[in-house]
């Protein structure tokens, strides 16, 4: 690459300064959330903590919603990074299913960052609405795809379409089929229903723990969570029939692991 082209490809000094200032604002907003909770977030408070005027902050985030959107997308990406890192660090010879490893990475991040987890999944901020198909949606889809991969990788489309689930109403099946192709729309409706149910199970246990509702279990919360995730995965896989010309939704797969090995080559993608 010619030297002049290389120089042209680099961010300008002005762009680098803007990126640094934007990151500083996001860091300050995250500190404010950690200290006071998501509901207390305001541009004025963040600006004051940085020695800026609100008018100066508007050059980077024109409204509170713009700042909140950036914070949510950043939190989702960091949560997804933590889940991916947990899966990547798992030993290949471990008997712990990769879905369980991913779920435990999710749990650890939530416990370590309760206020930011609350920003994602707690009480919606008053008057805030995430932009349609904006960065929060894209970040959430990345998270969804991570768990879809670890739960359902190795099963064929025919197997997933024949999953043993309660009969879906025609309207629900049609709605699931119309989901965006870069999200859950890649799955047959029965598999989407299974994935959403499993997600609710996992997420519900994490919410209970983060908000202190399972503190009576003390140091045993991690053990209970792992047991629940193992049982959940076993149930999901038991509902997916063995591949073959005679497969049917009433023929659960035995053993309960996918019929093909998991791979790590697929790219991940998962707000208010």
Order of helices and strands: HHHHHHHHHHHH
Number of strands: 0
Q: What is the terminal-to-terminal distance?
A: 43 Å
Report the biggest beta sheet as strand number plus sense, adding barrel if it closes. Answer: none
Q: What is the 3D form?
A: globular
Task: Note down, in words, how this protein is organized.
The structure is a single chain. By secondary structure, the chain is mainly α. It folds into 2 domains: 1-62, Arc Repressor Mutant, subunit A (Orthogonal Bundle), CATH 1.10.10; 72-272, Orthogonal Bundle (Tetracycline Repressor, domain 2). The chain is built from 12 helices and no strands. It has helices at residues 3-9, 13-36, 43-50, 54-57, 64-89, 98-112, 114-121, 135-152, 157-161, 170-177, 189-210, 221-238. The longest helix is centred in the first third of the chain and has 26 residues, at 64-89. The chain is globular, with a radius of gyration of 22 Å. Residues 248-272 have low confidence and may be disordered.
Strand-helix topology:
Elements: H1 3-9, H2 13-36, H3 43-50, H4 54-57, H5 64-89, H6 98-112, H7 114-121, H8 135-152, H9 157-161, H10 170-177, H11 189-210, H12 221-238
Helix pairs in contact: 2-3, 2-7, 5-6, 5-8, 6-8, 6-11, 6-12, 10-11, 11-12
